[in-house]
Amino acid sequence: MTDAGKRTCGYLTALAVIGIDQLTKRLALGSLDLHQPVSVIGNFLRLTLAWNQGAAFSMSWGGPMVLTVFTAIAVILISVFIWRLKDLTPLFLIALGGILGGAMGNLLDRFFYGKVVDFIDIGSNGWRWPTFNAADIAITISGILLVILYRGSSKKNPDAVEKNGSQ
User: Across the strands, what pairs with 38?
Assistant: First the structure.
């Protein structure tokens, strides 16, 4: 696959994540009442509309403006990485695209609403994970995939990691 084809995989992944994220958030906004859980799989999986002014999974981190600026910078950097980095596998670029799409999805919410739409609510026996959305899922899975891919490539070629780290 050419470098242009690999980059296209990354950007198309980002667009798909943005589309899925924004569609599911619009559906949640149109069909759920704020903080009123709707059971999907008993008490384990519920849909609960919530507004998140913090970072991923409702973590407080610097306030809405700091998060917006930080996310915008991350979006720009990841876009440049996808465009400029050479010799990356399509799967690595797809993972970068997943992070880019997730960041863009949440950034769009911050621009439209000043906060992020969350609606996926999991837990059991009185314990609940912070409410999240499709963008958060994409960022998390893509981040884990990048770690796995990096660890796998460093085990196959430890000299490449040393060379890249010393440049």
Answer: 47
> In angstroms, how far is CA 83 from the centroid of its own chain?
19
What is the phi/psi pair of residue 63, to 5°?
90, 165
Residue 12's CB is within 10 A of a number of other CB atoms, namely 14
pLDDT tens digits along 10-64: 999 999 999 999 999 999 999 999 999 999 999 999 999 999 987 655 555 556 6
CA angle 101, 107, 109 (to 5 degrees): 110
Contacts of 50 (CB under 8 A, 6+ apart): 34, 35, 58, 118, 119, 121, 131
Q: Is the pLDDT of residue 126 over 60?
A: yes
- Cα separation, 88 vs 52, in Å, equals 34
| Catalytic residue flag (residue 136) | yes
* Catalytic residue chosen out of the listed positions 21, 109, 121, 136: 136
Query: Is 21 considered catalytic here?
Result: no
Q: Which of 21, 109, 118, 121 is catalytic?
A: 118
Report the amino acid identity of residue 97. G
- How many whole angstroms separate alpha carbon 121 and alpha carbon 140? 16
pLDDT at residue number 163 = 45
What does pTM read for this prediction?
A: 0.86
